[in-house]
Amino acid sequence: MKACGGSYAPAVRRKYYLSGPQWAAAYQGQALFHAPTREALGFEQVIERYAEIGIGHWTTHDTDVIPTEALGKNQQAEIVGKIAGALRKHDLKCSMVTTETFYHAVWAGSPAAEAPEVREYAKFRVRNTVEIGHDLGAGFAVYWPGSLGYYVQGAVEETETLRWYAEALNAACDRDIEVAAAKKRPTLKHCLEAKPFEPQAEILLPTSDAMLAFIASGLLTHPEMVGLNPEYLHELMWGGAPRAALARALLAGKLFHFDINDGYRLKHDVDIGVGLVNPLDWLNVLVLLRSHRYNGPFNLDYKPPRTTSLFGVFEVSFPTAVDRFITLWEMAGEAIADPIIKEATDALKAGGGATDYRDAEAIVRANRELLTLHELIAHRLVQILLGLHRGRVYSV
Ligand code: GLO
Ligand code: MG
Ligand code: MG
């Protein structure tokens, strides 16, 4: 770990709005073709270890911590009480809760299936999660409608399914308004999370942009309560530019929450640690978010590789992911304040000074040298990322 460099103290790490998911630390390394490689973990251990590392917030699916059959029953209240106790003991806050609507067999036909009883069950589940969220003091509820789609074409009618899905979100928002009023708390921020592939063959809301259109479609009774939780890798997976997807969400006023990780274009959802694959892109993402004063959570939706031991999950995976985020965040601040990038950007914005807006050739001539600054800015960002702007030590 010393050799990895960039280790920050837990008190420093806690200053950043980072959250650690229960499911990320408890991920056992399993997949369709992979058996688990690590032992199971409960919330007590995960909360304790996050606290030691200095991850100040914790997030969970309902069924990460409550057995499906106990949801909404007395046993749920007991477990939620214990979670609240563990959070208090370790001075962690629950920032977000999310409903698992993809794993259990009941979701085989999606949470917006034809059978009305499935849809009533989905409403019960999202309302129940809202209640858990208020009980634990959360500010956000996330929905990843991964199973909203189909394997075989033609049986599912898309407009009908999307209307039914909206009914579940409406039920969650309505319940939220009631509980928030009763508890004198603000309502939660409800965040949709898109993923282009998996676990259905075809997904009805595959991108953050599709979700923005859905929020504005008129199907939601409280569109003002609903925004996005984009995930970095999910936008990269379909071939998009995550920074551009985030920019569109910012313009729409819908960037509520952000799942941070890394991976590869047009591959499966590997959820690698932030900046391990695309550090330059990550630097640029954080420049955008810092310059727009994004102040929502950064949720470490990260799967420690199955080659990492349980010891490694807390000694290597999470501390390094947190520290790389902090380093890139601070570098983004450096890039924003960098006098060279500023001078180049100002010069570009001032324009070349051509005076006749009808003369294309004159405009090209006036801007030709200025536009070289695009490449110069890119070189400068790489210098900042690699620390080259601090000088060089020669080996010969
Ligand atoms: C899976 C998603 C998943 C969500 C989680 C929160 O690919 O990233 O982990 O983030 O269910 O709703
Ligand atoms: Mg995610
Ligand atoms: Mg993912």
How does this structure look, described?
- With 396 residues, the chain is an alpha/beta fold.
- The chain folds into two domains: 10-336, TIM Barrel, CATH 3.20.20.150; 338-390, no CATH class.
- It is built from 15 helices and ten strands.
- The strands form two sheets. The protein has an eight-stranded parallel beta sheet. A two-stranded antiparallel ribbon has the order 5-7.
- Helix 6 (116-136) packs parallel to helix 7 (158-183), helix 11 crosses helix 12 and helix 13 (339-350) runs antiparallel to helix 15 (372-386).
- The two termini are 29 Å apart.
- Residues 193, 231, 259, 301 line the site of one magnesium ion (MG).
User: Widest sheet: strand order?
Assistant: 8-6-4-3-2-1-10-9
Helix content: 40-55%
Number of domains: 2
Number of strands: 10
List all distinct small molecules, including ions and cofactors, that are bound in this structure.
Answer: D-glucose, magnesium ion
Radius of gyration: 23 Å
Sketch the major β-sheet: 8 strands, parallel
Spans of 5+ residues with little confidence (pLDDT < 50)? none
Index terms:
396 residues; alpha/beta; TIM Barrel; eight-stranded parallel sheet; two-stranded antiparallel sheet; binds D-glucose; binds magnesium ion
